[in-house]
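Reopening this ticket.

The earlier resolution said the output was attached, but the attachment link was broken on my side. Pasting everything inline this time so it's all in one place.
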Amino acid sequence: MTPNDATEVQNTESTVEIELETVVKQAMDEFDNVASVTIVHLATINRLKTIDVRVYTGESEGVRDYLGLFSGDHRITIDRGDETLVIPFGVYAFYDDPVTWDSIEQTTIYMDQNVLGAKPVQLEDGLAYMRDKIKNPEEWNKDGDHAVSLERIRNYTD
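Inline output:
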């Protein structure tokens, strides 16, 4: 099995649509301890091309492991109000240190309270922030190419 890839030929009859939240929760359920979850959202001209769900855990078998949890026909659906995006994705486990910043191309949507040097981010807050970020791509460039702290994500749903 290979990871879902944006270069695959998309057959709309066999496409299985799934929500980002479902993908993230299923990936997190694979492990007893998850330090963080980061979404890498690569875009071209404000158009999402592919999404990687990266689960940072000490239980990963290597530095980067593809977790064949979904078939190549699965696509994440994202409602932007005026359109619904159907995006290919991959789900990976990482053994590295968690990502503690946000940028144009990635968003940490969960940070465990036990990660040294980082404040926790609740999954619900991170998912709400991520949905807003994807719905409003013009805002991605608001901070330029500079990495920004996760402070703005915390308590996003409040």
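Reporter confirms the inline version is readable. The mean pLDDT is 80. The longest strand covers residues 47-56.
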